[in-house]
């Protein structure tokens, strides 16, 4: 079943009634991504406001989901509701959760495609919270699913599916007309006559033919839906904000979480720019409504007037430079994927182009390498004008864009992208850099390899769980966010260093339908043992290559696969990206859908390679080191 946007308030009211009081009736299972983190925070605020006791458990993948089912759900008599945030939309949930009449399952997930049984089964006690996709864009798919389900319930349709058109028609004719095969001699020598059927028999034959055609037609509709690759819908934090708004419980805290959640999707190139623009327009209206400019003594508005208690949100023009308020201008530009890909900073000539751009803008390298807050105020005031004038000469046509800023009293000002980078860094590394953590677990001489790998995975999951809670707590603590910005800078340096190495050494190889690169050594290798970090590196390299090809007149680009060695586990973590990062001209027409999830699954089925597909991101897998060659060879034969 699914909950329409227009029914959010009614749904939440029914949810509260079903929960009742006493014990701990709600279990929240949440994926490990920034949008899910913000959504979980917003949901927790709603539940606390209604005094609903709940537990939160981060879930790293499908194995963790099954483990949570065994330890927290099965046999839990207090449980009334299980809420899944960004985990489980693409699978048949009853196969992973012991769903029964005691509790309901609520799914809030931006991963696509949906498993349609979760949405349209009437009595499965699963409620999918619709962000608008189901009601507005899946009418034909609903009709196809419902029609096929009805047809599959009849034995006639199943027999038609398993036989040829001619044989099926003949069998139906014999059955409907009451004729039986006569094996007597008379029947052999008797000349064949043209059979004549009653009008009723003919109508039944035609009706069954129409049913079979309809079966083929609707099967094709569902095949197109499932085989179109994976993509991301609206931000789950935005969905939670819409629920809060329908209840009249929206405020700046909830709005800021919604903005950060949406920004995380944009930064990671997960959604189409036109979709982002629509969502941002709604959020801008909310910002203006909830944050009117303060008044001075004469009663006139003071735009962005600050005070020690000012926690307002406002829109402001931003530069596409990473963490520019907290870094130097030079580093913010150098480590920005937008600037880096267009100036080709992985080469010496590219870095010279950056220096020339700064010189044309009247900025010395000494000035630019100071912390941005210490730069000359007059230079900062003219920076936007200078970039607008000289940026297009270097391909920086959209270097200025409108974003959201929040003031935290006199303490600091943070943009939505600042917070996104901070919480993402905490999810990847916790409060300290991953490479600085304790020594790895040593393997005993007599220890079985599988047991050793399982121990490593358990330790990794435990570490990721702590990282999640660090990031979760930081959303209420601006000091923690500021500290995390340093970690984000360090991680971005690792990404850019590794990306430059891959490009300089020409380690990206072009195959028939995709590009492949291996990260096998270097001081930053361990950083890319986390899917979020490796995904960022993949996107950085892909944008650099795509931009280079675009300048050469090539508009269609090959998707990219990066594989990072996990030394302790003797395996590779593999991430595949879609054909291109999304631009303002992109349409949601399937171009940009990620086809690697399907391709990985097909290769796993057709080869003996040891592959682990446990992530909620279908395009993230693990492959045994010794099987990588076989895996890539088979993958290269796929059309993406």
TrEMBL record:
Instruction: Kindly state which keywords UniProt assigns to this record, in alphabetical order.
Output: Cell cycle, DNA replication, Nucleus
> Does the keyword Nucleus feature in the UniProt annotation?
yes
Instruction: Tell where it localizes.
Output: Nucleus
Q: Which domain of life is it from?
A: Eukaryota
Q: Which Pfam families match?
A: CDC45
The record's region (Disordered) falls at 152-210, 292-311
Ranges of Basic and acidic residues composition bias in the record: 197-208
Q: Which GO terms describe its molecular function?
A: chromatin binding; DNA replication origin binding; single-stranded DNA binding
Cellular component (GO) terms are: chromatin; DNA replication preinitiation complex
Q: Name one GO biological process term.
A: DNA replication initiation
Q: Can you tell me which family this protein belongs to?
A: Belongs to the CDC45 family.
Asked if the record carries the keyword DNA damage, the reply is: no
Its recorded name reads: DNA replication pre-initiation complex subunit Cdc45
Compositional bias segments (type: Acidic residues): 163-174
Principal location class? nucleus
């Amino acid at each position: 079943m699914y909950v329409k946007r227009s029914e959010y308030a009614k749904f939440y009211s029914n949810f509260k009634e079903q929960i009742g009081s006493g014990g701990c009736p709600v279990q929240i299972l949440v994926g490990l991504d920034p949008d899910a983190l913000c959504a979980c925070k917003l949901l927790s605020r709603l539940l606390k406001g209604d005094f609903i006791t709940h537990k939160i458990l981060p879930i790293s993948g499908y194995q963790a989901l099954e483990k949570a089912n065994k330890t927290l759900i099965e046999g839990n008599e207090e449980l009334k509701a299980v809420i899944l945030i960004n985990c489980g939309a693409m699978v048949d949930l009853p196969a992973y959760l012991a769903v029964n009449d005691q509790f309901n399952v609520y799914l809030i997930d931006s991963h696509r495609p949906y498993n349609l049984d979760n949405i349209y089964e009437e009595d499965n006690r699963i409620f999918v919270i619709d962000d608008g996709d189901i009601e507005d864009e899946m009418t034909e798919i609903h009709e196809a699913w419902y029609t096929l389900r009805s047809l599959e319930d009849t034995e006639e349709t199943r027999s038609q599916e398993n036989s040829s058109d001619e044989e099926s028609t003949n069998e139906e004719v014999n059955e409907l007309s009451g004729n039986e095969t006569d094996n007597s001699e008379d029947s052999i020598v008797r000349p064949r006559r043209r059979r004549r059927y009653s009008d009723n028999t003919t109508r039944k034959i035609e009706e069954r033919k129409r049913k079979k055609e309809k079966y083929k037609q609707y099967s094709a509709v569902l095949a197109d839906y499932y085989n179109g690759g994976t993509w991301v819908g609206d931000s789950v934090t935005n969905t939670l904000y819409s629920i809060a708004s329908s209840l009249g419980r929206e405020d700046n805290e909830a709005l800021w979480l919604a903005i950060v959640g949406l920004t995380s999707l944009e930064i990671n190139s997960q959604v189409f720019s036109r979709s982002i623009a629509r969502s941002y327009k709604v959020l801008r209206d909310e910002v203006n409504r909830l944050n009117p400019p303060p008044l001075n003594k004469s009663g006139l508005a003071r735009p962005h007037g600050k005070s020690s208690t000012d926690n307002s949100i406002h829109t402001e023009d931003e530069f596409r430079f990473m963490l520019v308020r907290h870094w130097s201008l030079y580093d913010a530009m150098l480590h920005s994927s937008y600037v880096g890909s267009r100036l080709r900073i992985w080469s010496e000539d590219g870095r010279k182009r950056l220096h020339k751009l700064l010189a044309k803008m009247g900025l010395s390298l000494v000035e630019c390498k100071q912390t941005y807050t210490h730069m000359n105020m007059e230079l900062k005031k003219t920076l936007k004008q200078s970039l607008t004038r000289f940026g297009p000469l270097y391909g920086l046509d959209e270097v200025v864009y409108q974003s959201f800023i929040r003031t935290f009293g006199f303490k600091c000002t943070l943009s939505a992208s600042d917070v996104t980078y901070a919480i993402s860094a905490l999810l990847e590394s916790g409060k300290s850099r991953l490479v600085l953590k304790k020594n790895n677990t040593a393997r005993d001489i007599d220890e079985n390899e599988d047991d050793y790998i399982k121990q490593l995975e358990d330790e990794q999951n435990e570490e990721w769980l702590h990282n999640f809670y660090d990031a979760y707590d930081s959303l209420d603590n601006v000091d923690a966010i500021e500290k995390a910005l340093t970690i984000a800078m360090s991680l971005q340096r690792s990404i850019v260093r590794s990306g430059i190495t891959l490009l300089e050494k020409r380690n990206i190889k072009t195959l028939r339908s995709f590009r492949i690169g291996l990260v096998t050594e270097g001081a930053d290798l361990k950083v890319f043992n986390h899917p979020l970090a490796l995904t960022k590196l993949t996107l950085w390299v892909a944008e650099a290559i795509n931009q280079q090809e675009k300048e050469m007149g090539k508009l269609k680009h090959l998707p990219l696969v990066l594989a990072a060695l996990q030394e302790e586990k003797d395996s590779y973590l593999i991430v595949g990206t879609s054909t291109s990062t999304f631009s303002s001209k992109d349409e949601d027409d399937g171009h940009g859908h990620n086809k690697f999830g399907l391709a990985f699954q097909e290769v796993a089925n057709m080869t003996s390679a040891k592959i682990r597909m446990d992530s909620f991101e279908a395009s993230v897998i693990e492959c045994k080191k010794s099987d990588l060659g076989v895996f890539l060879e088979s993958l290269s034969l796929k059309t993406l």
